[in-house]
Amino acid sequence: MNAKRPIVAAIAIGSLIFLYVPSLAVAVFSVNNARYGLTWKGFTWKWHQQLFQNEAILEAALNSLLVAGVSTAIATILGTALALGLDRFPWPRRLSTAMDLLVHLPVVTPDIILAAALVLSFNFLRGFSEIFDLGMGTLILGHITFQISFVTLVVRSRLAALGRDIDEAARDLYATGPYLFFRITLPLLMPGILAGAMLAFTLSLDDFIISFFAHGPDSVTLPIYIYSSIRRGISPEIHALSTLVLMATVILVLIAERFSRFRAAV
């Protein structure tokens, strides 16, 4: 057993290196004085300074944050409500199985199929309302479509861990429905809700295929901008922006972890 520990440790360290070296390389290139190539030509902050002067990148980043923020807020509310509805209300066995299948389907369906289905739906609905013209609105709707399932699955796992004993005990103590939800269920669910929201937000920022199919001329997101800039070479400003996004993500993860520990301690 002891002889296997170095092997397991080496595999774990190798996996971490494989995961984080690309991100570290992007951070290094963001402070490299060379505009192109892999040669180190000195340390500089000019790419970070030029980043805030590049209107195209800033607009794409703002669109990504706007889409991710709005879609995550809506998907978190709908996903949490769906998880509560599936877990806390009685359903016939066959209907419950069908609902579980529908929730898991967007998770396992290839993005290209979901994107094509969304385009067909928007083209059909466009005849009834201009709201479904390709743009920011369809982009947000497309992201909500796949985010709901992820939020629902994360919140349901939290509900399964909590069980129903607490609800039954609160009912025995004459707790009303609103009191039970807002003072007991919702605080206990908050770590799961935050985890689901963070997952949905990250998936939205990272999404390319659905965004590519659902976006319009005025709703270019950062992944789409990076893809279109590959032909002329990725500029160091992109590396600088990626580094800042990575740092912001790490900070959010640390805050969520501290919040989860605080809720567990309480």
How would you describe this protein?
Helix content is 77%, strand content 0%. The protein is mainly α. The protein has a single domain (46-265), classed as Orthogonal Bundle (MetI-like fold), CATH 1.10.3720. It is globular and about 70 Å long.
Provide key terms for this protein.
266 residues, mainly alpha, MetI-like fold, 11 helices, 77% helix, 0% strand, globular
In short:
The protein has 266 residues and is mainly alpha-helical. Helices cover 77% and strands 0% of the residues. The protein is built from eleven helices and no strands.
Write the layout of secondary structure elements.
Layout: H1 4-29, H2 46-51, H3 55-88, H4 93-108, H5 111-125, H6 136-162, H7 165-172, H8 177-206, H9 209-214, H10 222-228, H11 236-265
Helix pairs in contact: 1-11, 3-6, 3-8, 3-10, 4-6, 6-8, 8-11
Low-confidence stretches: none
- CATH architecture designation: Orthogonal Bundle
Helix content range: over 70%
Beta content comes to under 5%
CATH topology: MetI-like fold
